[in-house]
Amino acid sequence: MEYLIESIHQKLCEKLEDQTRIITESVTKSVVSSINVKLAELTEENKKLKSEIVVLKDKVKFLEDGKRKNNLVFFGIHENQQEEPNLLTHILKLINNSTGLSLDPKELSSAYRLGKKSENPRPVLVNFTSLWRKYEVLKMETNSHLTWKTCHIKKDKLVIYENTREKSEKRKRNFSESPKQYQPQSTTQKRDEKIHKNITSSITPSRIENKILYIATLNCLSLRTHEKLTELELALLKINWDILGLSEIRRIGESIEDHKEYIFYHKGEIKGSHGVGFMVKKYLQPNIEEFKGISDRIAILYINLPGFKDN
């Protein structure tokens, strides 16, 4: 009898264990499945939020760039303790007197100092009401009126040091020239110099200049917008160039644009990526035979240059 009871009890325990295991596995699978579903939803939502954050960052950057687009920062402007009411008027007079422009007070929105007061004059941020007027002022560095101050331009920064000419004149020091060492010349060297002098004197300056061609390459980082192209034009005012090979233009499509001072060719296959091209001075336009775009990384300029030979 006891044996029978023990066997029944053992079977009941086994059944209970089996049922417990089945229930545990079922509940575990159900919980895990539910967690996986929720985790997948959270992962998808996280991806969407990340993409939205990227879009919002781009929008914020675009808005900030748009807000700063019409700004110029002036450095080296003398600072007075009671200048705030007349600061805008002072900046307006400074620009007009230095550049020969005739800016109207309505073309300047605001002007204020940046940073905390110190021994050195703080920079002045000036907001223009129109972008093209800002670029007119940026071109002032090439203006001949800038003879009474030192001025140089950085990206969206016009650095002006007032009344520095007199100080620099005082700091100048006249150095005595050391006597040149006499070097005897051979008869052959004298004859060669005489021949070179006769040849040079028979060539006009214009013909000499026509023999010099300035060719360079430039990584633009981006020329997608008209503002970027205008910034490049301003930067190129400081150097001599005739032909520029351009990379990283980031303009899609293939096009030849006729500008006032140059011919602009560009080719791009992927929007916002790579892109190559050329900028060729306008006087070389009759010599251009063909622009050939191989890919968004390779472009070829076929140009006929009389007087220049391949070595």
From TrEMBL:
Keywords: Coiled coil. The keyword Coiled coil applies. Residues 169-199 are annotated as: Disordered. Residues 176-188 have a biased composition (Polar residues). Gene3D superfamilies: Endonuclease/exonuclease/phosphatase, L1 transposable element, RRM domain. InterPro entries: Endo/exonu/phosph_ase_sf (IPR036691). Residues 32-66 form a coiled coil. This is Endonuclease-reverse transcriptase. The lineage of its organism: Eukaryota, Metazoa, Ecdysozoa, Arthropoda, Hexapoda.
